[in-house]
Design brief:
Helices cover about 5% and strands about 60% of the residues. By secondary structure, it is mainly β. It has a single domain, classed as Porin. Strand 3 and strand 4 form a beta hairpin.
Length: about 200
Amino acid sequence: MLNIKKFAILALLCVCSPLLKAQNLSFGPTIGVNSSSLSGLTDTKSRTGLSTGLFLNYSSTSHWGFGMQVLYSQQGANYERSDDYLKLDYVQVPLLATYYFGSQKTTGSWRPKVFAGPQIGFLTSVANKSGYDYAGSYSSTDVSAVLGAGVNYALSQKMWLNLDARYALGLTDIAKSPTLEVSNRVFSVNVGLSFPLGTYK
């Protein structure tokens, strides 16, 4: 767990370093709700969990932007025929290219956006309701494709409220089984608050 945290912090610093002198760089906290499922695992249904963390965004003076996030994400699935569940906790690192509609940045303005990009996840724990550890049965990493849309609301000229909905499609088989293929499916709704870093236009 400590090594994963160190990697996430190092990755965030690597992205920050070349952009610290850039214009329109912002950061902030984000929190949301996941509805996750496990494709390939029979007799299961979606499970609700928490998604929370930090983000760093760079936006050009036109319409394009790039963002990185480091998120703690509760995923997994509930079993249909019992009250048991399988909970997979990840540290997720999405790298997202964003297109912003409109150019208004005055207080009270809305700016819709769409975004997409890859996401790598690091498994921190996997267990059922009774606490049995299934870490040996699942891969420690996961790769997903993320697609989403949202809107930013200008609370002031340099501070924004960020709202988005996204879907993460797992691209890798996370089950260590020769007969079973399992992949993550996660829909999430998130809210965040962005603050400027350095010069911001």
